[in-house]
Amino acid sequence: MLAFIQFLVLTLLFIAHKSIIFNMKTTYNNHLLFKILLFTIFLLNFNISGAQGYGGLKTIVIDAGHGGKDPGCRGGHTREKDVTLAIALKLGEFIEKKYPDVNVIYTRKTDVFVELDERAKIANRNKADLFICIHANAGGEAAYGVETYVLGLHRTEAQQKIAERENSAIQFEENNDEKYKDIDLSVDAIIARQLQLSVFLDHSIMFASMIQKQIKNIGRKDRGVKQAGFLVLYKTTMPSVLIETGFLSNKKEERFLRDTANQTLMAQSFFKAFKSYKDYYEKGIVSTTSEKTEKYGLSEDEIKNEEVIFRVQIETSTKKIPKDDDRFKGLPVWMYENNGLYKYTVGAFKSVDKANELKKEMRKRGFEHAFVVAFYQNERINLEKAIKLAKK
Ligand SMILES: [Zn+2]
Q: 308 and 342 share a domain?
């Protein structure tokens, strides 16, 4: 049946292509038009066969950036290669545990050097359905946040610099002239390669945006999905992304990324993105309710004045604390002032049970004194009274 639909679409496109060229011969460049049509055929063809035709997401290759003699970029106390490996191993573990039937392959599991070329080959050789490269960034001291790249043309100097820095790992390889002589990272070549890989690019961008969504959910700065000419992405023939997990050149982010609990948090968010992607890939489902809504409840602009709202208080201070302070561990906090003190909460729920659930989680995450507080018409009110009011 699917084959028949594909045949029909291709035939229609072929007829359309003929007639368009016939009609527009005088004004349009046939060659370009043909290319565009070919590209459309690719996309349509893929979309029709997409969900079912690929038989499930069976193999993922996780690539911890750098390693061995190539330390990657450095913070004051941290080497990129250590951070990337720690996150990569944790991510793999999450997937292995939840999906024992998914084959998780690592380009490295220890502190060894692996050539860029070989990393891509590992993915191709194993016919991976997804390739995910984990890196950390370097930039000015002030830059912070997470960005995910797919292969493409950089839009800014900064993006190009990042690709150049990551590509420079080949300086540690022998015979690199020989190995990379066929790779052309010029504008034309990248466009041509994108066209060749167009079916995967679509999926790469989808996965990349799922990653960035999860990053926002854990309260880290979302720098967006970007494109640049990364060598390691150039050679792979499956959906591939490269995540820059944060800036080691920024002291605060370095501290964040060094921390084992935060490395787990990062791996967990990549795992959640993997889960959404797997659903999308296999069943064509794009989940609409974000985890943030489930976990943290209403956003501030969704709260109506006449509602009783339950929040989880995690911190009190005599001085104002910036919301991105380390002690909040990247959580989306909301502050109110009460009796001359600054109080910090997470979550906003209409149900006290949901707030209690989050309280338990906050206690597990190190906020031992977390407790539920209630608000009515923007004023803190007694909890029992609030529960009664909420039931009305
Ligand atoms: Zn790197």
A: yes
CA of 84 to the centre of ligand 1 (A): 8
In this structure, the answer to whether residues 104 and 184 fall within a common structural domain is yes
Residues with CB under 5 A from ligand 1 (ion): 65, 72, 135, 166
**What's the 199 CA to ligand 1 centre distance in angstroms?**
26
For the beta carbon of residue 258, count every other beta carbon within 10 angstroms: 17
Question: Between 249 and 366, where is the model more confident?
Answer: 249
Tokens for 359, please give them: 């309280």
Compute, in angstroms, the gap from residue 31 CA to the centroid of ligand 1: 39
Q: CA-to-CA distance for 379 and 7, rounded, in angstroms?
A: 64
User: If you measure from the C-alpha of residue 253 to the centroid of ligand 1, how many angstroms do you get, rounded to a whole number?
Assistant: 15
| Same structural domain, 143 and 113 | yes
| Count of domains observed in the chain | 3
Ligand 1 centroid to Cα of residue 226, in Å, is 15
Which of 257, 288, 319 terminates a domain? The answer is 288
Contact 239, 54 (CB under 8 A): no
Residues 209 and 335 grouped into a single domain: no
Question: Ligand 1 centre and the CA of 73: distance in Å?
Answer: 7
Residues 218 and 329 in one domain: no
Q: Could you give the angle at the alpha carbon of 189 between the alpha carbons of 183 and 195, nearest 5°?
A: 115
State the pTM of this model: 0.65
Is pLDDT above 60 for 7? no
Distance in Å, CA 110 to ligand 1 centroid: 16
Statement: residue 29 has pLDDT above 80: no
Residue 376 predicted with pLDDT over 80? yes
263 and 227: one domain?
A: yes
Range of the domain at 369: 296-391
